[in-house]
From TrEMBL:
This is NADH:ubiquinone oxidoreductase, subunit G, iron-sulfur binding. It is found in: Membrane. NCBIfam families: PRK07569.1. Gene3D superfamilies: 3.10.20.740, 3.30.70.20. The lineage of its organism: Bacteria, Bacillati, Cyanobacteriota, Cyanophyceae, Nostocales. Its cofactor is [2Fe-2S] cluster; [4Fe-4S] cluster. Coiled coil: none annotated. It comes from Fischerella thermalis JSC-11. Belongs to the complex I 75 kDa subunit family. Residues 139-170, 183-212 form the 4Fe-4S ferredoxin-type domain.
Amino acid sequence: MTVKTLTINQQLISAREEETILQAAQEAGIHIPTLCHLQGVTDVGACRLCLVEIAGSNKLQPACVTKVAEGMEIQTNSDRLQKYRRMIIEMLFAEGNHICSVCVANGNCELQDLAIEMSMDHVRLEYQFPNRKVDISHDRFGIDHNRCVLCTRCVRVCDEIEGAHTWDMAGRGTNSHVITDLNQPWGTSQTCTSCGKCVNACPTGAIFYQGSSVGEMQRDRTKLDFLITAREKQQWLV
């Protein structure tokens, strides 16, 4: 296995050649913000919060899908990157209907945590106030599209871990949204196994347990970690 040597924030580190910059940074204890990344499922580079600067390139690269290379010199926390990241967070708030004070995930929301990390105390953009639906047709769960950030975590865990592929994406641009079973109500789905993996994967209050009140939505990621580890180590193969 080939080992690559690179520099992240003036820190010399080693990484396996198949690793991404994000994986290498995490193993070295270097924090890179991300919203769409979820350990154990395929990375898609959707949120662009993990953009980094690489010496010799004018383009910012998403750390979650960019492979390490020998001699790379990477910056993860420059003023330029912080400016872009704050703008992305502000756009997510302006393009959705995120009202933290009445959200089931208040205090347990990755988008909220990132806003605090970026010192975002107000939004400089005009709010779009889209007309988005809430689907509570499922017996146990619900989805509030007003709080969805299109990270596609639900799509990926349902496909890659559960193997049901109940969730998918529809629409383009500002009309993009997640759907179940060719845009049918969640409660009528013939593929959903009611496993709850999508609920535990969601970074915001978009997918929730029915009956959750303000600030009560908590997730148990240990269930996903257990399944991912078992799959990677092939512990259930005879």
